[in-house]
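I am writing to request your help with a piece of structural work I have in hand. I am sending you one protein, given as its amino acid sequence and as whole-number tokens for its backbone shapes. Kindly check, if you would, that the fold set down in the tokens agrees with what the sequence suggests. You will find the record immediately after this paragraph:
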Amino acid sequence: MVVSRKQELPIINIYIKGTRLKQKEQFKYLGSLISSDGRNNSEVASRIAQAKTNFQKMKTVLTNKNISIRTRRRALECYIEPILMYGCEAWTISKQTQKKLEATEMWFLRRMLRISWTAKKTNDTVLEEAHTTRLLISKIRKRQATFFGHVMRREKLENLVTTGMLEGKRSRGKQREKLIEGLTDWLKAGKSLEAIEATKDRKKWRTMIANAVKQGT
């Protein structure tokens, strides 16, 4: 696989014992879908689909009104959300991706409350009936921030990959959002360099994460 922003991917020829290896645009590695464009759109879509499939398998429990909504939400957190958030520590969450994840969160709650799409209830009303608020994005960001802090403090290869600069010219048009930029905005840490510096103090970093979670998305 070649990871590139170009419309036409460069062709590579790698041979093993005279046999050319097939060039792929996507493949699964450690359970996550890697794409040649360097984006995680396909992986997020795959995670959402898997989570919804497993929700349907547990539908008799998750939509059972004889069980309190709080208990059913706990079941959702234990059995469905881990499937959805697997590998989310490496996701770059664009505005479009965030909308999809928030829509998935509401999809779960509406089905747990057995609210028909014809009922035309607002998301705020659904959240009130479920005795909760929007939590999914904060959970993902918390996991990302915890992992990011660990990577920065180790100062190993992962640190270099995350903070290193590539040689060459910037491409035209709007630049892609980086993981550190999304985290810095969520943590309200000022600039990316300030966030990276804050990770060195474990106690300070944990406090920043806790404050961000309290403030929500």
